[in-house]
Amino acid sequence: MALQFEVMGRFNRARASKLILPHFVVQTPMFMPVGTQGTIKGLTNNQLEDIGCQIILGNTYHLALRPGAELIDELGGLHKFMNWKRALLTDSGGFQMVSLLHLADITEEGVTFQSPVDGKPMLLTPEESIQIQNKIGADIIMALDDVVRTTITGPRIEEAMYRTLRWMDRCIEAHKRPDVQNLFGIVQGGLDPVLRDICVRGLVERNLPGYAIGGLAGGEDKDSFWRVVAQCTAALPEDKPRYVMGVGYPLDIVVCSALGADMYDCVYPTRTARFGSALVPEGVLKLKHNAMANDERPIDSTCSCMVCKNYSRAYIHSLITRDAMGSQLLSYHNLSYMMRLSKDLHTSIVEGRFPEYVRGFLRTQFPKGDVPQWVCNAMEVAGIDISPCILD
Amino acid sequence: MRFVVSKPSAGKARLGALYLGGGVAPPVETPALVVPTRRGLPSFIPKDLLEHLPYPDSLLLHLSPIHFMECPSTKTIKNIGGVHQMVGLQDRFFIASPSDSVESLPEYGGTNKLGATFETPYGRRLVNPKDYMEMISATGPDLWASLADEVPAWVTEKRSKLSIDRTLKWLDDCLSLDQEKGASTLGAVVGGASIENRKKCATEVSMRNVSGFWLGGFGLGENIEERSALLDAVTDILPEEKIRFVSRLGLPEEVLQGVAAGIDLFDSTYIFHLTIGGFALVFPLDILEETPEARSRNSSGNCTKINLRATIYRKDTSPIVEKCSCYTCQNHTRAYLNHLLNVHEMLAQILLEIHNTHHYLGFFRSIRRSLQQQKFELFRQRFIESRRAHLTEAIPCS
């Protein structure tokens, strides 16, 4: 195990912690920006440091295709290759099975898919995923799981869950650098509480450095989503980090943190930036909209990032979808927003004012008091009274 | 605006110091690069990264007011406080001219007596002197060129003469609409590929109350051999003490040609085009200090630029240029840039534009140093020789 996890503050199920990783000490709850191909789209490393980014995520699948794991290894690992001094996390390549590869064939041995570069069939086994991730050298690596869409039902979910457990053992066996890289297991089991329970218990028995809750954020309804998170966080050990994969909407992050999750990743903030949307406390601001063309205000007057301090909505409107600079500036702002959200969650928990923070957040997002029912349900489980935010 | 100019040696090349912004900022030494921008910012370098570029070398930025024709409105730009405020660069200086070589191309066919036409991403736009002055007044550049009718080298004598008449008339129109009465105005000098017309235009513009001159209509089809005579014809007439800004002479050889003719400021989309193509500038900047052995080594093996897309950089862990102090070279390898280009990541262009701008500013610094040492002609000669030498060889990296 190459990490230390210290809980610094709690409110009911929510926790704020310090996670000591080989390359950097990070604070949770935290959002991890996705740098798929060894770069966060449109931002330099020093900009990422300036906005307080502690860890970034690389996609094993993409990196293995280009520039290739051997090359990264030969040049000293991904940290050195991209000259990123802070922490890194790589996924297993498993998620791309459902997101990119319609022709993937999943068997007990692994996943066979067509290489998008040269069309040759490629086999990704648990052993190979770990081997590649060992070469990339991130602080946290993920076990290969059998990912299925949460929206499907039937025996395939059960098969995938058991297979994920079997592959877990193969991953542990294949992991050659446990002293410098932390292998996280992934809880699968669809929306079925029984299957999720079996999976959690199976993984906890294996005493891993951290645990992820996978298979979510794939189009399931929100009530099912938070119930799975709540069930898993309740059953996972207190002294290990918990990572909800693929979650990136600010509201989801607040809810999951209240339920005791620590880490999140999503392409949403940077992707939506490239499409011209800015994240603001009230929700989303569409900079492409004609109303922005002559709006002299900053994106968010409460934000102190470089973009909000210097640029008007009108100017960014003139750039967006025309110039790369539009994407650059909006990505910078959106990630700054996510970093601020993470920091605020952490600080409010440490300072014992987490419920107030959550209420303030919900009041700003839902000024009319129309907080969605699923959020109300989740907050009841999290033991946070949000009744002042709800108006009839 | 104040400009102090001196001529270090017999030729026409000059050294100058441009004082802008009421003397608070350090002077900009000329010959200087006016860093190209798109809507006021370099294509890929936002405010925080711009601060990594050499200072005060990077103080001058180019502005094409035409870039803001769609939005924001001139009223909004004015309310925000002009271009400096709008792009967050209060401590930099903007020098405006209507056209550029990327998004606002002069379109002489559409130009008529009412105004000049530009090819923009939103279609052709006719701009009359009144519109133009409204844009200038809203954006508030530190220096601005008057509206010109730029024509390519191949137009008829009649059309060329017409372009001079229009350009002069528009200069007078601009001046009459200018609240500062020409204190920040660069009078536009055109005249196509005819020495006589160039002379005529330069003579007329010199008589106007302007603070300097903008030389337009270059880089539009005239050949490089005839260009020196055209430049000389103009600079022979222009008063020595006023600054001269030329557009579209962007390649290193063209800049040297311009400096030799007595030009002080250059805008250049060279950096942009290199960056978009995946190229990085690598030519040596200290060719005067080099030993003859190093020179022969450079001229035989070195290139002006390298294409970082090439597979030979796949595992190259060296920076683009050893000892380069730019952010890119201090932090990243050729191998990483090669990867970023291969996977079409935006960071490639960001890092390349930083390096290329840094390197090109260094090139201008070398030019100034050679002028100070009264060795400009030697510098120019060696530079061109080393470029020619590489052209005659089979170079794997270009």
From TrEMBL, chain A:
Q: Which reaction does it catalyse?
A: guanosine(34) in tRNA + queuine = queuosine(34) in tRNA + guanine
Q: Please give the cofactor(s) recorded in the UniProt entry for this protein.
A: Zn(2+)
| Renumbered residue ranges of the record's region RNA binding | 246-252, 270-274
Principal place of residence: cytoplasm
Residues given in the record as Zn(2+) binding sites: C303, C305, C308, H333
Q: What does the record give as the function of this protein?
A: Catalytic subunit of the queuine tRNA-ribosyltransferase (TGT) that catalyzes the base-exchange of a guanine (G) residue with queuine (Q) at position 34 (anticodon wobble position) in tRNAs with GU(N) anticodons (tRNA-Asp, -Asn, -His and -Tyr), resulting in the hypermodified nucleoside queuosine (7-(((4,5-cis-dihydroxy-2-cyclopenten-1-yl)amino)methyl)-7-deazaguanosine). Catalysis occurs through a double-displacement mechanism. The nucleophile active site attacks the C1' of nucleotide 34 to detach the guanine base from the RNA, forming a covalent enzyme-RNA intermediate.
What name does the UniProt record give this protein?
A: Queuine tRNA-ribosyltransferase catalytic subunit 1
Automatic annotation (TrEMBL), chain B:
Which InterPro entries does the annotation name?
QTRTD1, Queuine_tRNA-ribosyltrfase, TGT-like_sf, tRNA_ribo_trans-like
The superkingdom of the source organism is Eukaryota
Major site of localization recorded for this protein: cytoplasm
Q: What are the record keywords, sorted?
A: Cytoplasm, Metal-binding, Transferase, tRNA processing, Zinc
**Family affiliation:** Belongs to the queuine tRNA-ribosyltransferase family. QTRT2 subfamily.
What is this protein's record name?
A: Queuine tRNA-ribosyltransferase accessory subunit 2
One GO MF term? metal ion binding
Residue ranges of every copy of the tRNA-guanine(15) transglycosylase-like domain listed in the record:
12-388
A Pfam family annotated for this chain is TGT
Residues involved in Zn(2+) binding: C324, C326, C329, H355
Q: What cellular-component terms does GO give this entry? A: cytoplasm
What this protein needs as a cofactor is: Zn(2+)
**One biological-process term from Gene Ontology?**
tRNA modification
Its subunit composition reads: Heterodimer of a catalytic subunit and an accessory subunit.
Compartments, record wording: Cytoplasm
* Gene3D superfamilies linked to this entry: Queuine tRNA-ribosyltransferase-like
Q: How is the cofactor bound?
A: Binds 1 zinc ion per subunit.
Q: According to its UniProt entry, what is the function of this protein?
A: Non-catalytic subunit of the queuine tRNA-ribosyltransferase (TGT) that catalyzes the base-exchange of a guanine (G) residue with queuine (Q) at position 34 (anticodon wobble position) in tRNAs with GU(N) anticodons (tRNA-Asp, -Asn, -His and -Tyr), resulting in the hypermodified nucleoside queuosine (7-(((4,5-cis-dihydroxy-2-cyclopenten-1-yl)amino)methyl)-7-deazaguanosine).
